[in-house]
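Task: encode each sequence below as structure tokens.

Item 1
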Amino acid sequence: MSKSLRYLMLLLIFTPCTLGVFAQDISVSVDSVFQSFKKMPPAEKLYLHMDRDNYFTGGTIWFKGYLVTATGNLPAAMSNFIYVELFDQADSLICRKKIKKIDGVFSGNIKLAQDLPKGSYFMRAYTTWMLNAGLDYAFYKTIYIGDLQTHRTSSKMEVKEVENGSKSISVYFADKNGSPIRDTKVKCMLHMGNSKVEVLKRKTGEDGRINFEIDELGTNSANHFIDIDFEDSPIEYNTRLFLDKKEGAPDVQFFPEGGDLIDGVLNRVAFKAVGTDGYSKKVWGTVLNSKNDTVSSLATQHNGMGLFYIMPETGEEYHAEIKDDDGNTINVELPRHLAKGAVLSLVDRGKSLLVNVREQGLQTVGSYYLMAHAGENVIFVQKLNDKLYKIPKDVFPEGIVNFVLLNESKQVVSSRMIFIRKEATANLSVSPDKNNYKRRDKVSLDLSLQQKDTTMYSGSFSIAVTDDLVVDIDSLSNNIRSALLLTSDLKGYIEDPGFYFLNSADSTNFYLDLLLLTQGWKRFDVNELLQSGVPRAKYYLELGQTIAGKYEKMLLQREKKTEITALAVDPFITASTFTDENSNFIFDGLDFPDSTVFTIQSQRLTNIKQEPAGFIRIDKDTFPSFHHQKFIVEKKQGFTGKILQNATERVYYDGAGKMIVLDEIRVDATDKTKHELENKYGISSTVYNEDRLAALFPVSYPMNIVIRSLPGVSRIENNSVYLSRGTGPAEILVDGMEQTLDEISDLYSDNLDHIAVVSGASAAFYSRRGGSGGVIIISLKEGGQFEYDLKGVEKVMPLGYQNPVEFYVPKYEVDSVRMLKQPDMRSTVYWNPDMTVQSGADTSVSFYAADPSTTYTYIIEGVDNAGRVYRSVGKLRREDE
């Protein structure tokens, strides 16, 4: 073997004699920086195993959260709570759940409302500790929610291009029988992004359609959608329709291997082409110099990515002329190229990696160091003796490994990521007890971890079993292996991540390497880390629940510690604490589920009497903002074809009960009070009187939840409410007195006589500032009095954790139950988020088959105590022979 082609042996790297050879060896210093990570709680990553990808209104999303350490995927992450959120395409929050770790497991569900508009929705999940790495490393998933309720009003939008560049919109409305809905007033609120809202009013024609034109949407990232409501109609119908943005030229970016192009050296350059919708684009073209001579050609090879070679010349400039299938032609400048520099180049040789330092004008040997790390763990730091190394892959863990070229000042000169794929060592054996199952048969699966060594492994697992007739399994979507080993460490959207784990073919490995050449690892900045150390955490590790706030004393009160008490009735909770020197207080170590209402009260006592109470200010729950187009693209495909037909037939039976749909009955009587209020506030207002409030809020809810639920409220930021039709924050008037959200936090829904959301011209009549942001008018019940600063007491309902709900599984253990005529048409046949499987022992899970003849797909995922990731997909046959 030649001198320039040798094995880099880790045992030699870390021995004291090797470290002592070089007077300026920085390996000890680099290693000490990475050791600093061990003084902090480990960084975390999170994956949600969900029972399926597509749902329907009225259904339930079941999920289990796998929270592991960001390095090594160990189940040693310390957070005790995760947050799971559901957003629509307008980035509006639909639901937020806080999930508590119970017996080591995070599991929960989201019940979907019946009136959700069909379309793409987005799941996001994270811990507060994960936010220190940034929102890029939260868990994201696109799901589709279909409306299969055929008994309801439906709408369909058609969009056509008009010669002047605008769009012609036609919306068709049909009743439950599919007949057009005629002569009905429709209000359309067009949201064109950047707070621009236009209101149009139309009436459906004999064909059940309304028509209008809108300006060209452009290619910006704003959300464009239309809120539709029926007015003065016996049919209550509202929905939200989303508009596709204009297709433009693709965005093409170039990524030289190692970071820079070097003159006089053959450089590998990866590129990626992305369309305006966020999906990859197929492109091709040529690379030209300043004389327009062709020096290379390029063409996408997989998901908009490709690779070409170039040897830049000093003083020359290069650009690429690129075309796509839509007829677009763009010119893109290549990145700068350096007369002097050094870059890393890596090639996977099967069982080893070939590491090459390509340099020009520098003496890299003896002056530079090669470092490799996997997350927070340094694998080695070695001073360069040669420019070419062959490193055995078995010294690296599975997943992403980052190679970094450092100078003697510990500054990053070049870096290159590569994915280490291990042979399948984490194998889960699944053995069904039968080859075929009959109607309502008991299904038993034996699970065991295949043991290849003497190590005893134990893992936490979850299983979803779904009916292939109604649930389509996307083999290319994110799964536990692609998430924990790949996407959770990369910034930006990864298209079809499951593809890279379908097999270990050479072509798959090549495409995976293309992905790493074009997608950056930035969980932390290596250069900043080595120069400045581990950054201080901005977000806390959530081990328990807390309520915090501030006590503001009365003007004449003395400065002293004040006792603050907290009381909740259901569940019964009492707590006490004292203010600190800054009058702040905190209750920690609390344990409370969702919808728990606390009364926080100050206690200032003297020897003679209780002093006048001050004011309690509670810190509000805050959550990170959401903009889906930065992290994840929209999934257009929903229920189609035979699956749509089957799902529609079964929707009435899902949830172990059949829905009986009655004919609509028209009631001509009107709500006189509501009608009078609407006349008072104007036709552009939305009014809730006492009866409507009681129907919407059957139990008492605080005002922040009431206001978030009002139609027309688009968002709440910095204690201000913004309406869809407003151009600034809305004013809040309580019995004619302007208030902030904080100042009305101790009001509840049952205190209200009515509430009105007024926008447009009518808002100016009530506003003190012109009404451009709209006005929210709150009127209290007669005899009620609003204490604008209620002294010494505050009511608060912080976000609590979801009480666990068990997935319903029918048990056909006796003939009398098995022979019941009620159909069993479950689409998610079985869901179990809490299974423990150990090596050397079998774990059995059982459930009962449903009625239709079909096949089932089971997906079992899990992580063991050594950080090994498991995924098993299989089929079960259900036929009556």
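Item 2
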Amino acid sequence: MLLTKTTTYFQLSDTTCMKLIGIFLFFSLLAISGPVYSQVLNSENLRNVDVSTLSDEEIRTYYNKAKSTGLSEEQLYSLAIQRGMPENQVQKLRDRIASLGLQSSGQGGAKTATKTEKGGDALTKQPSDESGKPSFVKVNRDSTIFGSELFTEVSTVFEPNYKIATPASYVLGPGDELSIQVFGYSEQSYNVAVNAEGNIYIPNAGPIAVSGLSVDDASVKIKNKLAATIYKAIKTGQTKVQVSLGKIRSISVSVIGQVTKPGTYSVSSLSTLFNFLYICGGPSNMGSYRKIEIIRGNKTYRTVDLYGFLLRGDRKDNVLLQDQDVVRIPYYDTRVSIEGEVRRPGKFEMLAHENVDQLMTYAGGYSDSAYRGSIKVIRISDTGRVLADLPLTSFGSFEPRSGDAFMVSKAMSRFTNRITIRGAVYRPGDFELKPGMQLKELIELAGGTLPDAYQPRGLVARLKEDQTASSVSFNVTDVLAGKEKLSLRKDDIVTISSIFELKDAQTLEVEGAVRKPGRLSYRDSLSLLDAIVLSGGFAEGADLSAVQISRRMEQVDVFSAQYKQAEVINVDLSNGLSGSQATQLLSPNDLVLVRFKGGYEKQRSVTIGGQVISPGKYALQSSRETISEVVRRAGGFRGSADSTSISIRRATNYNLSAEERQATMERFLNLSRDSIMANPSLREAYLHDMDFLSVNVQKIKDNPGGPEDLILEDGDYIEIARASNLVRISGEVFHPSLLAFENGANAKYYIKRSGDFTSNARKTKTFVIYPDGRAKSVGRFLFVKTYPKVTPRSEVFVPSKEKETKKGFSTAEWIAISSIVATLATMVITVVDTLK
């Protein structure tokens, strides 16, 4: 009846209906209740179903109907195989369902679950990757448990490898497919599946029972059957047969106990225990890693300890699972924790009779900075917690209990056998303290004393038992000769001083007309000639006839009103350094003075540049040569020169830093730092260690040699600028620019032409910088401002206000100002009335 209704609904042809009979009966009868379902299912045969002839709509309809029965996808496939559906048709059915997007997350029967019970492991569903690999779950577990990291994320180590050779122990069963290749005198190939009865069927040869046999045993049986029926040449060797495992069957394995995802799983028959543990998420936080049982045929087939694999990579317990196996993970019996200076701190499961030595092995051993003499253990007793120190010698006999907490401390930084020697020895530093070690032995280990060692006295810095400091002195000579013996202790510091450390450094000075004046180290028998040579010899202009040696007096009569402090030795070296006086011996702290000759003076020069006929460097002919004389020697001004001003830069001798020069300029001009930084001319003025001289050229022309005609110094730079009719306006104006000079105009005129003052302008401090370096600010008398005149090539600069805003007038100040204004107004009215 069901078949008739379904066929009428889809309006299928008779041929299509016949093709659908097997798969339709399989899927539709799944909805029938238990006993009825089993009877009908056993009566149907799905051996001749061809999935490729079904349409997508038909697959989708039957799949949804089958899933509504509540069975998992793998259980449906398993039932189809049991009813004789060939493995290749089952695989085609899988592929068709996957291509239609009907496949549920997870393959191989891996259950995806979320536990919400208190204390359970939280599972988070993860999506499949692009390669179509099955989805897995990420387990939120206690990561401190040793081995738990294997079951937190997908690892290819635990994925079954379907491309390996068939294991020798693999036993054939219903659902497996064998590939039989006949070659030689005859050529033929067969792909046959093991049916539910455990047989394979080869045309013209008949059924062959292979269930329960290994692949090798089945291969022998198949060869004998073929040789006896179809291929007689197998016996003579002219025809050969090769049997291999094609597609493999699925098996049903259950996992119970303290597992992350308990249940029954349909997995590949090549799956091993490790593969299966990964699929089911491994032991839970309360599960054992060391007593995992494989129950086969209602008996414990094997008890597996995962620590062998975790610690040594031992895979002997990675056994193949069989159909109807049960994996049981019990509660752990003994779990302890270890923290501190070990390589792998965490929680470890201990078996009976295991000791702390095994625990240290599981934890990876000590870290590099661990204290190895003992460890601390905290144990829970009937009355509370107990703390104990476990010495190293007891590790092999101490058996941990569940809940024990071990702590490995860090080694102290102090040394237990260190002694130190410092000072005048060849190899100062730290050394090992040996039992009964003497001071002489330490000095010999340090290479012995240096030649400059102070022999009469050495010192040993030592700590007493209560850690207070003490010292022990010794005679270095007697110790080395064996006359004095001194035993050393832990942390002793031996110091042998140098004779040079016990007195001031001895030096002398050579100053004046030498090429390298300065301080020299004193040496015994150092002569005047030696000191002159070490100072580079005499400089040009040295007066050899009046060399002086100033020597400090050893004893001074300080009670005298006028006592002598130094002895002056005059030496005449006019005859050269080969004379007898050049061998005068010097003493520490001597001061050797070599004067210049009275008439000696270095040549001085100045540089003149710009708009003169012959710019360049000119030697000063006299000690009082003036500006006008040098300009005249340079040929005078060119026609393009600005003859109204001359700029002179002179190197300063103040040795001030840039900050000090800036502070001086700020104080002198009463300007803020921001104002100076905004003006290039001012910034250059304080950054260069130069003095700018202001020169009035007109006055020099009118009175040569007068006060304005300055006397030049060595190194002066005179600049004659090119004539220009431009004026620069900078600072706090709206449009800083260059404007044409207009005769008679003052600074206010140019400021107006540049857009006037900005709101941040400090108007009262406006000033003009003239080409000759002079500066003139705004004048003020009562309430009247007088702006300075402007010349060509000058600069009008408007500074900015201070960053600190000025305080307003107080109430008292406003009252006083109001009183003054009122008094002045009264006086004005009185004067006006009188004049009437």
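Check on item 2: The chain has 20 helices and 39 strands. Confidence is low (pLDDT under 50) at residues 1-22, 28-44, 105-135, 154-159.
End of task.
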